[in-house]
Design a protein that fits this description.
- Helix 1 runs antiparallel to helix 2.
- The chain is an alpha+beta fold.
Length: 87
């Protein structure tokens, strides 16, 4: 699925990338663990700027994004297969 915006790398243990579509007030994030992409709707531009400027993006997501904005999973991400350790 092609996204309407370019996701850019972020410095976060929770997220690998984030992007914002100002016309739709929509924040897109890719989670580091499974690669899933979520869209958060109705996010003001100021909140997006605060997210990118925060010292801890993960903490900001927990305190200011999750449970505050409607979200939808728009990509399953890539499921990583466990690797076998060499004996």
């Amino acid at each position: 699925m092609a996204l309407p915006i370019l996701l850019k790398p972020v410095n976060s243990q929770m997220l690998s990338e984030a992007g914002y579509l100002p016309q739709a007030r929509t924040l897109f994030v890719r989670f580091r663990g499974n690669g899933a992409v979520y869209a958060y709707f109705g996010v003001p531009a100021e909140v997006n700027q605060e997210l990118l400027a925060s010292r801890s993006i993960g903490r900001f997501m927990q305190q200011r994004i999750f449970k505050h904005y409607y979200s939808a999973r728009i990509s399953q991400g890539e499921l990583k297969k466990p690797t076998k350790e060499a004996a």
